[in-house]
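Milestone 3.1: sequence recovery, worked example.
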């Protein structure tokens, strides 16, 4: 179906990377959209041509209710009162993924989940490239999807967040997967976790082949959608399994060993599961198994994802700054191999998460918590284990430097957003790396 945007009043909300890509999408079609940005000093203001009208300030602007089509950036909540009013008036509100879905002509692999999206998407990109595909990786991973429409490709791999899925309706994926769904962004969704979960599940709506985690999703999802092809992982009875035998770890399909991940560069049980999903997607796409195994055995953890950055005197320093929710921190703790004290750095913007869930888990570990950032004090008071509260990551690491001994693990896995004190999780991770290097230059 070809969509006609001419003679429509089009409004773009947000001037970040997504907003600029949407603006360029319409300008290439000869259409001049309007734009609203809540920040008074947006960094991309110099990228707005003189012929494009824009407004800087409050979202409550007459343009919203005068529009025919609103394209919303993922950082702006779909549940703002003014946007709810717009929908009631019949105004169409879509994401950049929706615009892309209407234009894309090559097969699409769609990946979402609370944790692990970037790792699995990157694994599949490397496998597909190794197999000879002209592959484009885009979406929530950093490259706006609309910027890729004019590039030559025969396969799209999209990492998609729940924020993007909120306003996506036409995405027809060849393969889609939800890696996991755990409590996150509860401050974004008025109806809480169930609304967040429902948003994630929408990725399966128009998908040809659906890959589902049976450890988290009931088999009812398969029973109620029998017209789709379902591939399962996550349990011993799934199509794809992580198998353990004689202190070795294998990726298995229908109980047959495919790959010995004990010999790969991957660290962390959660990354073995990520590799398992990558294997299942590659199989569904009929990519040569030899190329898949070759790629997985040479793949190493992405930066800021359980990244061992320094080992000395029996102490591991691990950067897991991408951990922005409680479940990802649990996965990181489960993957620590040292037998000494785990010195865990927690803190930032908790996004109203329930940190009490950690208590039962922490009681089984030899652990000391160092809390920092906006919600650091609240987190320290919530946890039923030895913890200290400081203002910054730097102060926490200076304390650790004085206390750490051989056999310990220093783990930055904050379970929080970084935006209270950093530009993003990358900047937070780089700060951890920088301080770690300074500590070891002084010893």
């Amino acid at each position: 179906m070809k969509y006609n945007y001419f003679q429509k009043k089009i409004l773009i909300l947000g001037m970040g990377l997504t907003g600029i890509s949407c603006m360029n999408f319409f300008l290439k079609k000869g259409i001049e959209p309007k734009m609203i940005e809540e920040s008074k000093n947006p960094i991309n203001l110099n990228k707005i041509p003189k012929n494009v009208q824009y407004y800087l300030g409050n979202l409550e602007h007459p343009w919203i209710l005068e529009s025919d089509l609103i394209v919303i950036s993922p950082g702006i909540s779909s549940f703002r009162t003014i946007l709810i009013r717009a929908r009631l008036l019949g105004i169409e509100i879509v994401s950049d993924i929706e615009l892309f879905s209407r234009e894309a002509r090559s097969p699409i692999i769609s990946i979402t989940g609370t944790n692990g999206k970037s790792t699995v998407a990157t694994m599949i990109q490397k496998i597909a490239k190794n197999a000879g595909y002209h592959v484009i990786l885009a979406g929530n991973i950093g490259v706006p999807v609309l910027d890729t429409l004019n590039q030559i490709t025969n396969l799209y791999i999209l990492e998609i967040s729940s924020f993007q899925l909120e306003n996506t309706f036409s995405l027809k994926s060849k393969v889609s997967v939800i890696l996991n769904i755990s409590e996150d962004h509860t401050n974004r969704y008025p109806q809480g976790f169930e609304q967040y979960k429902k948003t994630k599940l929408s990725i399966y709506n128009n998908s040809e082949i659906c890959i589902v985690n049976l450890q988290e999703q009931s088999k009812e999802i398969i029973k109620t959608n029998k017209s789709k092809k379902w591939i399962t992982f996550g349990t011993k009875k799934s199509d794809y399994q992580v198998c353990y035998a004689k202190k070795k770890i294998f990726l298995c399909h229908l109980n047959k060993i495919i790959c010995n991940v004990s010999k790969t560069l991957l660290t962390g049980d959660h990354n073995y599961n990520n590799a398992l999903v990558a294997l299942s997607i590659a199989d569904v796409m009929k990519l040569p198994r030899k190329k898949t195994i070759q790629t997985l055995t040479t793949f190493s953890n992405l930066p800021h994802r359980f990244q061992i950055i320094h080992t000395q005197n029996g102490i591991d320093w691990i950067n897991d700054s991408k951990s922005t929710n409680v479940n990802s921190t649990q996965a990181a703790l489960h993957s620590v191999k040292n037998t000494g004290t785990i010195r865990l750095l927690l803190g930032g913007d908790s996004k109203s998460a329930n940190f009490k869930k950690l208590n039962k888990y922490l009681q089984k570990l030899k652990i000391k918590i160092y809390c920092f950032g906006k919600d650091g004090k609240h987190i320290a008071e919530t946890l039923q284990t030895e913890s200290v509260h400081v203002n910054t990551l730097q102060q926490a690491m200076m304390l650790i430097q004085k206390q750490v001994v051989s056999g310990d693990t220093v783990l930055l896995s904050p379970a929080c957003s970084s935006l209270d004190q950093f530009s993003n999780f990358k900047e937070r991770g780089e700060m951890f790396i920088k301080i770690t290097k300074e500590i070891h230059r002084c010893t």
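The first strand starts at residue 10 and ends at 13. The chain is about 30% helix and 20% strand.
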